[in-house]
Design a protein that fits this description.
About 30% of the residues lie in helices and about 30% in strands. By secondary structure, it is an alpha+beta fold. The protein has 2 domains: about 1-155 and about 290-325, Ribosomal Protein S5, domain 2 (2-Layer Sandwich), CATH 3.30.230.10; about 160-285, GHMP kinase, C-terminal domain (Alpha-Beta Plaits), CATH 3.30.70.890. A hairpin with a 5-residue loop joins strand 5 and strand 6. Helix 6 runs antiparallel to helix 7.
């Protein structure tokens, strides 16, 4: 018995949607899983951390915690990992790993977790639901967690937006990006920043991308404090606008920048930007609409053929919903 698990990367915030808005992107963390006599991990690509002790790996820790929450132990297995998600770049690499671990336990132990169950567990481990919600549900998500543990999530799959990531060659740890933020905001700043977030959501849901780009650049919650941690970020945002981007913001906590561009114009945008910013990798991405995909592969003992049962982690294909957990 083997399993294949695919988790999309994510971007969060989109400017003023601080710690609440997330979008799943078509770059993936992939696991090939097989039961074994002892736990082992094999990295098949770059963008993956080298962890000498498999038990210390974030995916394994997430899976073990998920199993323990259900009074079970994770069985020993071999994990073969591939990743298109660079580490510490603001593309949800840690959230993807946590979600992968939750799905690993879900598959191996047949926990039959719903998407909402997975989000609740991921939020407990990650601390906030925005990246995890996007990786679990796919599409465009808005999520929040309350002090009493209740989580709300809204997800939509109809948005046909295109983006270009400007990925620098250095890392920025989320903790460092959080430490530059103020502890308090004035009422006027909070009101203005919240209004920009509301307008951003309305623009995306109506697919008014030119307007969405305007609001992406009106954040007051985190970008004014974090842009100074990202060399050339201010210059890149100005150049991106001149190259045709509707708007550019920090992806998650950074240091990657995310530009909203007209569909079909991604390569034209990249060609205008790449020589000006050679220290950034410019990568076109679109919205992933499936979220988690897990496939269980069974070997038919009467033949040499394998067949699979595929389970998609999206709770349904309808456009959107608001759900308390």
């Amino acid at each position: 018995m083997t399993w294949s698990i695919s988790i999309p990367s994510s971007t969060a915030n989109l400017g003023p949607g601080f710690d609440s808005i997330g979008i799943a992107l078509d770059k993936y963390l992939e696991l090939e899983v097989e039961l074994a006599s002892q736990l082992s991990i094999e990295n098949l690509t770059e963008n993956l951390p080298f962890v000498p002790n498999p038990a210390d790996h974030l995916i394994v820790q997430s899976a073990v915690k998920t199993a323990a929450m259900h009074g079970l132990e994770l069985p020993a297995c071999t994990l073969k990992l591939k990743s298109e998600i660079p580490l510490a770049r603001g593309m949800g690499s840690s959230a993807s790993a946590i979600v992968a671990g939750i799905e690993l336990a879900n598959q191996l132990l047949e926990l039959k977790l719903t998407a909402h169950d997975k989000l609740k567990i991921a939020t407990m481990m990650e601390g906030h639901p925005d990246n995890a919600a996007a990786s679990i549900f796919g599409g465009f998500t808005i999520s929040s967690s309350t002090d009493n543990g209740e989580i709300h999530v809204f997800h939509s799959y109809h948005i046909e937006a295109s983006f270009v990531l400007s990925i620098p060659q250095f890392e920025l740890k989320t903790e460092k990006a959080r430490n530059v933020l103020p502890d308090h905001y004035t009422r006027s700043i909070a009101a203005q920043a919240s209004a920009s977030a509301n307008l951003l959501v309305a623009a995306f849901l109506s697919q008014s991308f030119e307007q969405a780009g305007i609001y992406m650049e009106e954040d007051l919650f985190h970008e004014p404090y974090r842009l100074g941690l990202i060399p050339q970020s201010k210059e890149l945002k100005i150049a991106a606008k001149k190259a045709g981007a509707f708007g550019t913001c920090i992806s998650g906590a950074g240091p990657t920048l995310l530009s909203l561009v007209q569909k079909g114009k991604e390569q034209e945008f990249i060609s205008q930007m790449k020589d000006k910013f050679p220290s950034f990798d410019l990568v076109p991405v679109s919205i992933n609409k499936t979220g988690i995909i897990a496939t269980k592969n069974r070997i038919n003992p009467s033949s040499s053929y394998a067949y699979s049962d595929t389970q998609i982690g999206k709770s349904e294909i309808s456009d959107s919903q608001l759900s308390p957990i």
